[in-house]
Amino acid sequence: MRRIGILTSGGDCQGLNSAIRAVGKALYERFQNDVEIYGIQDGYYGLIEGEYKKMEPRDFSGILTIGGTILGTSRQPFKRMRDVDENNVDKVQKMKDTYMKMGLNCLVVLGGNGTHKTANLLSEEGLNIIGLPKTIDNDIWGTDMTFGFYSALNVITDVIDRIHTTATSHGRVFIVEVMGHKVGWLTLYAGLAGGADVILLPEIPYDIDSVVAELNKREKSGKKFSIIAVAEGAISKEEAALKKKEFKQRRAEMVQPSIAYRVADEIKEKFNHEIRVCVPGHFQRGGSPCPYDRVFTTRIGTSAAQLISENKYGYMVALQNNEIVPVPLSEVAGKLKCVSPGSNEVVTGRELGICFGD
Ligand code: F6P
Question: Are residues 172 and 233 in the same domain?
Fold first, then answer.
């Protein structure tokens, strides 16, 4: 009898339930009645606190299209459960204890960078772990794609499309703030898909004068509106030159935490035009997964079941060149996949005359 645990950790996104379904259905298909699956509640928190429940085959039905996660989620245990343990090792020990008590053969974790760092830690501690790459940010090293990305991209592209119609009607400058944490994948793709005129990414620190020059250029050519897609993690050239400590302090002191409003204020000082800001926020992570994410999660979920049947552990199931491949957790942990300023997508944007503010 195989006993498999499954948990979802970190910020939720579209496709989590679809991935859970794929893992569950593929395990039952492979092992028939010779498998028990346990859903661990609220991510690693449930593993620390021993909160889990046995799942039945019917639990994996009817969830393909549903957003969020039926298992619940939480951010990293090292931040959340400080009151239980001050010492990280104790938390790891608690997780190991729960794993042992449950008699698991493997734990499947669905999550982003923080989740995979912890997954690698548990793997180094001798637990059998398999990771599935989840995040709208698409910033996990070792995989070309993370699930959630394309679904969020659909949402934010739709937002930009809708902003376009109102921006053209009123002849306004619109600044749309896109999620993505410290990387610009979502903003870059949404900006290209939505036909943004200016795209500001964390990886290419912006100069407000270049942005204003672009707005002036458009106005002179008779275009009365402009759309700026700005990544929530975007930084100015001036900020990029600061030391890490100074930068952190400056950000901590800021009255306006939203970059879109800050960029709007900076533009207002140099460009006399009506400006509006749109911050879609968590809308981007909500709702049903798009078809791509349904197929992708089905592919990686079934691949996780295959690895389990082969007793291959310590891997994240990744997409590389459209092949599903296992990548060692040790290679994934602690790295960030950023947009390269020389990437094909950025070069494509520049060919179209899109301004990256540098
Ligand atoms: O990592 C996914 C993400 O949506 C980021 O794009 C964003 O910065 C962050 O999570 C928001 O976190 P929270 O849901 O905790 O507000």
Answer: yes
